[in-house]
Specification:
- The chain is of the alpha+beta class.
- It has a single domain, classed as Aspartate Aminotransferase, domain 1, CATH 3.90.1150.200.
- The protein has helices at about 5-20, 20-35, 105-134, and strands at about 40-45, 50-55, 55-65, 70, 95-100.
- Strands 1-2-3-4-5 form a five-stranded antiparallel sheet.
- The longest helix is centred in the last third of the chain and has 27 residues, at about 105-134.
Length: about 130
């Protein structure tokens, strides 16, 4: 039986294999996620999708031919005053940020969004444990 490779290693390999602006972009966004939440857990799901979690999924990172997409699992519940979300805006739960070649993302606003997603996940988790106790 093959030994499962750690998710962080698989994510690093994917970034390296992309080898172009998409790998650079995904790597930069990964770094920002880790800076925003040093306790983030990296996961590898759904046949090759990087996932960042903390008390639930924060976001996924997908790469397509013309876009790197960061989908926030509960993005519709987050405040986005700088309007980073530019995709999946009609959904009732998720929201995404599509980054095209040459585009820059406001780093401070992105890190604030990640922290807000973590706080939202953590609040939901503590509410669930409170309900179980009562």
């Amino acid at each position: 039986m093959p030994i499962a490779r750690p998710a962080a290693e698989l994510i690093s390999k994917k970034i390296s294999e992309l080898g172009d602006w998409r790998g650079e972009t995904l790597g930069r966004m990964r770094s920002l996620i880790r800076k925003a939440d040093p306790d983030v857990v990296e996961e590898w799901k759904w046949m090759g999708t990087p996932v960042w979690s903390h008390d639930g999924i924060i976001c996924t990172g997908e790469s397509y031919k013309k876009v790197v997409k960061l989908t926030f699992a509960k993005g519709a519940s987050l405040k986005d005053p700088t309007r980073l979300f530019n995709s999946s805006l009609d959904g009732k739960v998720r929201r995404a940020i599509d980054i095209h070649e040459g585009e820059q993302v406001d780093e401070a606003a992105f890190k604030a969004l990640v922290r807000q997603a973590v706080a939202f996940n953590s609040a939901g988790r503590s509410e669930a444990s409170t309900k179980r106790k009562s």
